Amino acid sequence: MSRDEMQNLQSKRLIKMVDRVYHNVEFYRKKMQAMGLEPGDIGGIEDLNKLPFTTKTDLRDNYPFGLFAIPQSEIVRVHASSGTTGKATVVGYSRRDIENWQECVARVLAMVGLGKEDKIQVSYGYGLFTGGLGLHYGAENLGATVIPMSSGNTKKQVTMMEDFGCTAIACTPSYLLHIIEVLEEEGAIGRIKLKAAICGAEPWTENMRKEIETRLHINAHDIYGLSEVMGPGVAADCEYHAGLHVYEDHFVPEILNPDTLEPCEPGEIGELAFTTITKEALPLFRYRTKDLTSINYEKCECGRTLARISRFKGRTDDMLIIRGVNIFPSQVETALLELGETSPHYLMIVDRVNHQDTLEVWVEVEERFFSDEIKELEHLTLKIAYVLQQALGLSVKVKLVEPKTIERSEGKAKRVIDKRKLV
Ligand code: DLL
After folding, report:
1. Domain-by-domain residue ranges, the chain?
2. What pTM value is reported for the model?
3. Is the minimum distance from the CB of 130 to ligand 1 under 6 angstroms?
4. Nearest to 359 by CA among 315, 316, 328
């Protein structure tokens, strides 16, 4: 679709949705009334910025079902995000919502090059988390064969992958690294039929994507989504890996300056917000995701005209402020993988000693470093400390640790321990 055609479609859908929400969701009706806004004031997508924002706190305040726009008898499924702080966020789906979700995920899988002949191992967690069931029904909708493994039991994952001849795997990038380790230990890489991985649910870097591709001899794709908006399948990258195509016919993206909430220019990094324009059960106006990215409306080399968002830098609430310097875990990951002399497993430990913030980075290195001369270990420690200092603009204490010291993730990885928050 051309940009004009897309905007026409978005406008039509937005107008209908605003009317529906105004009449069915008290929370939004009150918000709009307080702003002196009526459904008729929204004449198209150009009026999007007149609508109120929605935050995670709004969902929590209306826990569990307060923002639903349809009667409970029309809700066919709920999911929830556990959330590390506070109450869970509960989301609901109508039958049509589930159909649209399946279609979005099927689009992603087709974009990755998968089809009916493929066997897709779904190793995201099944349950209230949207990853497992989201990929599951998307893959079925595509007509592929689904292997519903869920996460965990890594040895079994590897056996099934080999025995069933799985051609694709969907899981978090950190869990895939763990699976790769087990595959390597068992010498099974040459025996598997894998050709693609669909990884997301947590920030990861382009270097990590390439590392996965090289070690598995496959194509690895980035899939994005969040439960509040739907789940996996809101956006994903094509074979050019030049940003993630957003399914704008369902979700209208905006990039906002997180301080002023004014729109950012294309290319400028800001907070991503979504307005859903087809959802029936839980429609959201301008939902602030806290995810930091930029947008590009130019046509992609693959031919798609859907807007692209850049690989995520992190979330506003993942940003660490250490001695006044803003740091994202992704910067550490990029620097370590660029250096290429360690494993991709790292952990950041932030503390406050004598009123001063400290950052220690643990990095796993090969066993041989611990048996070789101590000089070599010291040399690598200094080298990493230097590289990290250059990347972060902050002095960092580096501790090289033996393989398997850092806990492996089966879902979303925990890269940071902030002891300042524990006291
Ligand atoms: O993580 C949905 C999902 C499942 C996406 C499987 C992709 C694959 P939530 O648990 O609600 O939903 O967490 C959403 O995870 O706001 C981002 O901060 C982060 N996230 C998701 N995908 C990516 C990605 C699922 N590709 C939150 N890159 C989002 C970076 C991601 N961060």
Report:
1. 320-418
2. 0.96
3. yes
4. 328
